[in-house]
Amino acid sequence: MKIQYIAPSFEVARDNARCTGCGICVQQCPNGVHGRDAAGNLTIDERGCVNCQRCVACCPVGALKVFPSRNCWNGSPNWSAGAIADIYRQAETGGVLLSSMGSPGKIPVYWDRILLNASQVTNPSIDPLREPMETRTFLGARGGRPRRGAGGRLIPDLPPRLELQVPVMFAAMSYGSVSYNAHASLARAARELGICWNTGEGGLHRDLYEYGPNTIVQVASGRFGVHPGYLKAGAAIEIKMGQGAKPGIGGHLPGSKIVGDISRTRMIPEGTDAISPAPHHDIYSIEDLRQLVCSLKEATGYEKPVLVKVAAVHNVAAIASGIARSGADIIAIDGFRGGTGAAPTMIRDNVGIPIELALASVDTRLRQEGIRGEVSLVAGGSIRCSADVVKAVALGADAVYIGTAALMALGCHLCRSCHSGRCAWGIATQRPDLTARLDPQEGARRLVNLITAWRREMEEMMGGMGINSIEALRGNRLMLRGVGMTRKELEILGIKHAGD
């Protein structure tokens, strides 16, 4: 008899008084939790449950509930249930543990320790319903001093930039790690909202080229799907150097997912593992990075801004300083709590720093060196709501990336099983029966609703601060106050304590 060292993490309860035996739960569960025995009776095998909530959401009579297991480990404050389970898994398999989404660890969330200031009398607030509010922002180098031609007219010679109607973009998620329907939802929503979405490192499906004016195409170390037409299709090009969920680690899409259009889009044979190594093998210095930036600009006629995406690590301010001098137009910083389709668990939970500290330190460093105006900053890594966006802009960001929040709008229930390929909501999967569960039109509608709601909330918060434009909010740390933080944390963030 094989011993099961790890008990199920969740319990599934069926109210037999309500259950009609329709079997919808059997049809909807991709993990084999619900089934039928030889007599046709419904059964439950909790060992496969990841708490995706699909069965609960689809049960027509509300007969199902999923909740954390009441099984108790002989743990301690030092030996948590998670640490014990990890040891059992590795003793069983001898392999590196993989996890999805962002880290669930108890690292401080600084957004929750930062409060916004408000205006009242001497600097009155603004009513966003009756007075104009500007949420539009531009990403890219701002150029030098304005130049005038004959008759004093301004010469419009600004470098290429991105125009966003709201300072929010959909973060990089590659085709293959997420489904075609997820990409289509993001692309449609970005066009309707007047913002941008990011292809991730897997290339761009031929059907989505029409969304090019709202697309950021990514170039990663594996160069999957990269060709001149791809580079020219997007509104901007992003060089991926690092990712917040796995700093110093490359990407890996298993060969089982490299099928059909994914194989054609990535330009690799079906069944071949798509491995992006951690380093770009042509980049070992800022000078090498500058060469790639120049090459990409040359390939696109100097008509596209170039972003460089890096993970938030302890020396990120110095790294950003070098990137700003490499010719890049935009620096994207991805923080510790950023999501991922798959990452080594120990890397995800122990490497990197929170985006709040990284963003503040980078903005400060670039201002001290007098080069802040030469690049724009984009912050990502667990931006959860409109208040986080406002705080990020006040800390120095020109815009933010959202990934997990966008997936939640599409239906993601944060079950952290993306790497299994059995996403019950049709997002992180390539199984046709599961992918079909996500309707791109409905997905786009939900994304548009989310960002529209955030924009209205941002206008309310800005109005309360007496600010009527994103530009006036950017880097305005006087409007922020900290609570429950050390003097050093406040110093890095560049804000005062509440009451000061």
Can you walk me through this structure?
- This protein is α/β, with parallel strands linked by helices.
- It folds into 2 domains: 10-95, Alpha-Beta Plaits; 137-497, Aldolase class I (TIM Barrel, Alpha-Beta Barrel), CATH 3.20.20.70.
- It contains 16 helices and 21 strands.
- It has helices at residues 24-28, 54-58, 81-93, 180-193, 228-233, 260-266, 286-299, 316-324, 345-350, 355-368, 386-395, 404-410, 432-435, 440-464, 470-473, 487-493, and strands spanning 10-14, 34-36, 42-44, 64-68, 98-99, 114-116, 137-139, 162-164, 168-170, 197-198, 215-219, 236-240, 251-253, 274-276, 306-311, 330-334, 343-344, 376-380, 399-402, 480-482, 496-497.
- Helix 4 packs across helix 14 (440-464), helix 8 (316-324) crosses helix 10 (355-368) and helix 11 packs across helix 14 (440-464).
- The radius of gyration is 24 Å and the shape is globular.
- The mean pLDDT is 93.
Mean pLDDT: 93
Radius of gyration based on Cα positions: 24 Å
Separation, N- and C-terminal Cα atoms: 65 Å
CATH C-level class of the largest domain is Alpha Beta
CATH architecture of the largest domain: Alpha-Beta Barrel
How would you describe the shape? globular
Low-confidence stretches: none
Helix content: 25-40%
- CATH overall fold name of the largest domain: TIM Barrel
Task: Give descriptors for this structure.
500 residues, three-stranded mixed sheet, globular, alpha/beta, 15% strand, Alpha-Beta Plaits, TIM Barrel
